[in-house]
Design brief:
This protein is an alpha/beta fold. Helices cover about 30% and strands about 30% of the residues. It folds into two domains: about 1-140, Rossmann fold (3-Layer(aba) Sandwich); about 150-255, OB fold (Dihydrolipoamide Acetyltransferase, E2P), CATH 2.40.50.1020. It has a five-stranded parallel beta sheet with strand order 2-1-3-4-5, sandwiched between helices. Strands 10-9-8-12-11 form a five-stranded antiparallel beta sheet.
Length: about 260
């Protein structure tokens, strides 16, 4: 596969180039630190695989991806140093991301998925990319709903909650359940709305229906199949889902000494 690397950090380009060099079926045909120059090169000679940094000064990775021709759309691996881009944007299982810093094992896992998805028709790849880009662009916008306190209901009464004390948020049809210590509250909201309201906290999505404030995680263990079991300060225990297993693992790996 012909590969193009686009990242405005020389060290990041070097890491990607060295990882690619270790794979027999990859050939780096170009690497660029300027997004506009990169876009011209991609259009002139579309690669099979594109490693694309999301945050760049001249033209960011989202703009580049939006400008690519659907008929020659490469497989795209987004590269980012910012964890909030990785929380929910890649639920669509048609592209991938690398969270800096990454190691060879993470690179190879990403590459395995890229190889498996090469057989998808261009229209399917374009639709999946559009879905991912829409979520990335939403996450890139400055939060407008950060609140230090939230109103939630318990036993027929409204309670004012400090967002820093919230340990866990779970979706429950048209509501969310909010755990503060051993107490459980409800609010008429979606999990996405709750996540935006809690954007100032260290929230980690561990499944499609569960957000955890990692500031309140006290114990981390694994199930036999590799999912993560988290025990919170208030005693609640939650388990990550298979679809979120790798991003949860990547998060906790970065916390190791």
């Amino acid at each position: 596969m012909d590969v193009i690397i686009v990242d405005d950090e020389p060290a990041a380009r070097r890491t990607l180039r060295e990882c690619c060099a270790a794979e027999q079926d990859l050939r780096v045909v170009g690497e660029f630190g300027d997004g506009r120059v990169a876009l011209e090169a991609i259009r002139a000679r579309p690669p099979a695989l594109l490693f694309l940094d999301i945050q760049m000064d001249t033209m960011n990775g989202l703009e580049i991806a939006r400008s690519l021709e659907p008929a020659t759309l490469p497989a795209i691996v987004f590269v980012t140093a910012y964890d909030h881009y990785a929380l929910e944007a890649f639920e669509v299982n048609a592209t991938d991301y690398l969270l800096k810093p990454f190691d060879e094992a993470r690179f190879r896992r990403t590459l395995e998925r890229v190889r498996a998805r090469r057989v998808a028709p261009p229209a399917e790849r374009q639709a999946a990319l559009d879905a991912v880009l829409s979520q990335l662009e939403r996450l890139a916008r400055p939060p407008v709903d950060r609140r230090p306190r939230l109103l939630a209901e318990s036993n027929g009464a409204l309670h004012m909650l400090d967002v820093a004390d919230i340990e866990l948020v779970e979706s429950d049809r048209n509501y969310v359940r909010i755990r503060v210590g051993r107490d459980v509250y409800h609010a008429r909201s979606t999990l996405a709305q709750a996540e935006q309201a809690l954007a100032g906290e260290t929230m980690l999505r561990i499944s499609r229906s569960c957000l955890v404030n990692v500031a309140h995680v006290r114990e981390v263990s694994r199930t036999p199949r590799g999912d993560f079991i988290l025990v919170l300060a208030g005693g609640a225990t939650v388990t990550s889902s298979e679809g979120y297993r790798e991003r949860v693992r990547d998060y906790f790996e970065r916390l190791r000494l």
